[in-house]
Amino acid sequence: MNLNEAGGSADLLEEMLELTSQNLTQMELKDHYSIIRELGQGSYGHVLLVIHRARGTPIALKLLRKKSTKLRNFLLEYCISLSVSSHPCMVGMFGIVFETKHHYGFAQEVASFGDLFSIIEPGVGIPEISVKRCALQVSSALDFLHNKGLVHRDIKPENILLFDKDCRRVKLTDFGLTRRKGTIVRPMSGTIPYTAPELCNLGSSEGLAVDSALDVWAFGVLLFCILTGFFPWETTSGSDTYYVEFENWQKNGKALSIPSQWKRFDNDILPMFQKFLAIEPTQRGPAIGVLEYIRLQWKVANWNLNGNSVDNSKFLDDQANVVDNEHFINGFQEGHNSTLSAKSSTRFRTFSSNLLQDDKWRNT
Q: Where do the TM regions start and end (predicted)?
């Protein structure tokens, strides 16, 4: 059962929630699965790699603690995950949902190469060709989600799964915060670099109507992060010098010089970031607009932390890979057009502290 693109999606989602609730089965994990190891954990619960005893199928089981998870929120995450899993850039689902004594759980496909976070080298990022592959696939997933009237609300490297080491196949996962467009949300405790300014600057008693612009902002920050191995700022508020510098540049355009942390990018690609990271939400995106820039050079070839010239042979190799992989780009565009016509913690805190504690890169 899939959500419609039109307004009927809300009613259909409610129907899915009701049917899933009625069919939620009680089970003992050890009766059906052999537990191999833990894939991840967080405040929500944990994810286990298991083997289905009868079929021998490797499966990832996401288990959410009943003590800290409302049944409706669990059902919402499962139903949304199932509804969007038909898209090739969304994590696959097995249609298995259950509860144990202490957890709610569901089954999804295993990403054999972990997540995008695991391959980011602090201060370096990942190769530009891999960034572009991720950008193509994640933007397609977001476009699909947004056309269904849904907003992910948690775009970050940990929620992008890898199915090979070169990012030729990645998938968006973790729909625990996903809500319908227009849903009123409150600011969460603490902020992260991916949080858009309109949400970051909400008062504690204020609410914000969820919009796809929140995902577009996070997508822009994600691209910066995986291209460089740094965050552009710690928080999108007036207390962050680097965000204020960027905000002033956005608002005043050519009247100000390019902020130091953005000089690492080719001038032709800066408009892409300015669109995704527009201060005014209505001026952002959409994320699929990355297609316009995919064949351009993104990073300055001879730029380093000190502004000195460096060996650009690795960059040139990457650019050759872009040419060699024209079939990848063309195939993606054809597939995307076909889709339109037919109508994914502790690690984050460690990552954040490691990348933001050293500001020397910002001083060029």
A: none
